[in-house]
Amino acid sequence: MDVAVIKGVFNTMFPIMSDKMGLPLDMKNEVLRALTDTVSPFIMLNKITKKIELSGTVKGTVFSGHPTRTTWGNTLRVLSYIEYIMKDC
Prior knowledge:
The chain is of the alpha+beta class and 89 residues long. 55% of the residues lie in helices and 17% in strands.
């Protein structure tokens, strides 16, 4: 659901958010890709030997606990709700 919401409001929200976060507008496509990419690579290192024990990709819409995607999606959803509720006030 977060991917659909982000894609739906991204063009409107990105200029506002980029201004507040100091992101250049020419990063728009890269930010959208990073927020909506459903395939994320991972590696697991042995803490002692620093050797890679496992690597691969995780496929899904939101990587559970991912700080940017989860928070960003929740923030956009709440802002959308507020905008919808306030439009008739």
